[in-house]
Amino acid sequence: MNVLQSRLINWLTFISICLFSFSSQAASFYASVSKNKVVKNEVFQLRIVSDQRASSDDIDFTVLEKDFSLGRPSFGSSINIINGSRSNKSEWTVSLAATHIGYITIPSFELDGEKTQPITIEVSQDEHAPDINDLVEVQTQLSKSNLYPNESALLKARLIIKADPRRLQNPTVSPPAVPGLDLKAATEANQYQTIIDGVEVTIVDQDFRITAEKAGSYQLSEPVFKGTIVYGSRYNGGTRLVPIETTPKKYQIKVEEKPADFKGSWLPASKLDLTQHWLDSNGDPIVTEQYQANVGDSITRELRLQVTGLTQEQLPNIKVNYPAAISMYDEKPQFETLENGDVVMTIKQVLIPRESGDITLDPVTVNWWNTNNKHQQSTSVAGLTLQVKASDQPLAAVPTPVNTPPQVNTVTVKDSGIWPYLTALFASLWLITLVVAWRFKSRTSAQQLQVEQSVTSSSEYEAVINALANADGIAICAAINAWIPTVQLTDEEQAELNEKLNKINQSLYSPQPKAIDTKTLKRLIDAIQKQQSKRGKTKTESLAAL
C-alpha cells in the first residue's frame, strides 16, 4: 500500500467517524408528530425524545398555545443497562389540535444546548366539522322588556347539551348580564336528561329575575357556554377537539318613568289577583254576607295575593282595621313562588267577637299600577257582617221536689179505748218513714248531679290544659269557651280570664310573635277548677238540706 492509498483510507475513516458522530448527535434529541397534514381541530400527537436524563418541566409547551389547543403533557424517563453499558431516555408526549387553517410551524425546542428541528403542519378546513348548534345550544325567553321602577321581569334560560357530557372538557357557563339593573337567580339550576327529536340530550334550566331600579334603556345578554368537546369523525376515524363558545342573544330593556300623578304606595305589576276565604270555628266555609256567631267564636279570614312582576320583598303589608269589639290575631304571612314566576302571599287572620250585636268587618282593597294598561287600579274583596249574640252558658236545672202531706181522716169513737194511742203511734211512724225516704232520695239525686258535673268539668278542663301545653292560640280559645259553661265564674274571675287570654293571643299572633307564657293562665284556670269542687259541695249540701 502506497502513501496515497494510506492517506485515502485515513480520510474515509475520518469522514465515517464524523458522519457517525453527527448522526448520533442528531438522534439524541429530536421531535416528531403522528401526522403533518390535519384538519382544523383534529387531534394529533407531538413526541419529543432525549437520551439525557431530564425532568417533566424541562420542556415548555406554552409556546404552542397561540396556534394549538393543548392536552395535558405526559412525561416518562427510563434507564437501560445492557452488557454493562448504561443509557438514559426521556420522553414527552402532548396532544395538539390546530385552531386555524394554513401552514403552522411547531418551533424548535432546546435541552442542554441541543435543539429539535422545527416541524411544519399543514392544516385544512374540515368539511364535515359539526356545527356548534349541533353540540350545544342556549335558549332564553324574557317575560317582559318594558318595565317600571321596582318592577321585575323573568328570564328563563335553558342550556341543551346534545353531545355526550363525558366528552366535555373545562365547561363553564357565564350567567346573564345586564349593567344598571338588579339581576338575581330566581331558581336553582335543574339538570336532567330527556329526548329531543329522538336524540338523548342533557338539559340545564334556571330562571333569573331582573328588577328595574330607575328609568333608562338597558341591554341584557343571555348566558354564554364555553368549553371543548372531544368529537370523533366517522369519515376518517380521527378525533376532534371542538372548542365551543355560544354567541349570546341581546335583549333591549326600557324602564319607564314613574307616573307623576300616582297616589299611594307604589306597587307596579302586570297582573294582581286578590282572593279571600272565610271559615267558621269548625273550618267550614262561610259563603253568606251575614253570619250568625256567638261571643267567643273564632272566625278565620284567609287572604291570598298573587302578583306578576314583583318579588317577595316588594309585596305590600296588608293591614285591616277591625272594630274594638273584635280581637284579631295575625299569623305570619306565607310566601310561594309559582312555576311561571308569580309570587303568592297568604295571610291568615283569626277574628274573635267579644261583644254581642251586629259587627261589620270591612272589605280589603289593594291599590296598584297596571303596567300593561298603564293606569292606576284597585282590587278588592268584600267584608262580612257578624250578627253576634251572647254566649249561652246553661246551668243544669235541679227540680225542687214537691210533696203533699198525707190526709188523715179523723174518726170519732165514743169509746176509743187504746185505739187512739195505737193509731197515733202508727201515724207518727209512717210520717217519719216518708221524711227519711224523701231525704235519702234528694241526697242521691244531688250526689248524682255532682258526679255528672264533675265528669263533664274534668273532660273540658283536660282539653284546656292540653291546648295550653301546645301553645295553640285557636285551640286555647275553643277549649276555654267549651270549659266555661261547666264551671261557675264570678265577675272578677271572668274579667281576669279574658285579660290573660287576650295577652296570650296577642303574643301568639302579633306581627312579631314572642315566646308566650301560659303558666299564669294555667294557674288561674287551676284555681277556678279547684273552687268548683267547693262550690259544687256547698250547692249539694244546700239542695240536700231542702
Commentary on this structure:
- The protein has 546 residues and is of the alpha+beta class.
- Helices cover 25% and strands 38% of the residues.
- It has five helices and 32 strands.
- The chain has helices at 3-27, 419-470, 473-483, 491-509, 519-545, and strands at 29-33, 37-39, 43-50, 68-70, 74-82, 85-98, 102-106, 110-111, 114-115, 119-124, 136-142, 146-147, 152-161, 168-174, 182-185, 190-196, 199-211, 216-221, 224-232, 239-245, 250-255, 268-269, 271-279, 290-294, 299-308, 326-330, 334-337, 343-353, 357-361, 364-370, 375-381, 384-389.
- The strands form nine sheets. Strands 1, 3, 4, 5 and 6 form a five-stranded antiparallel β-sheet that branches.
- Strand 5 and strand 6 form a beta hairpin.
- The protein is elongated, with a radius of gyration of 49 Å.
- The chain starts with a helix and ends with a helix.
- Residues 8-27, 393-423, 444-456 and 537-546 have low confidence and may be disordered.
Q: Sheet bearing the most strands, described?
A: 5 strands, antiparallel
Give the CA-based shape. elongated
Helix proportion of residues, in percent?
Answer: 10-25%
Structural class: alpha+beta
* Structural domain tally: 4
Strand content: 35-45%
Reading off the top of the CATH hierarchy, the class of the largest domain is best stated as Mainly Beta
Extended strand count: 32
CATH-defined topology of the largest domain = Immunoglobulin-like
Instruction: Please tell me the overall pLDDT.
Output: 79
Number of helices: 5
How far is the first residue's CA from the last residue's CA?
A: 169 Å
Rg calculated over all Cα atoms: 49 Å
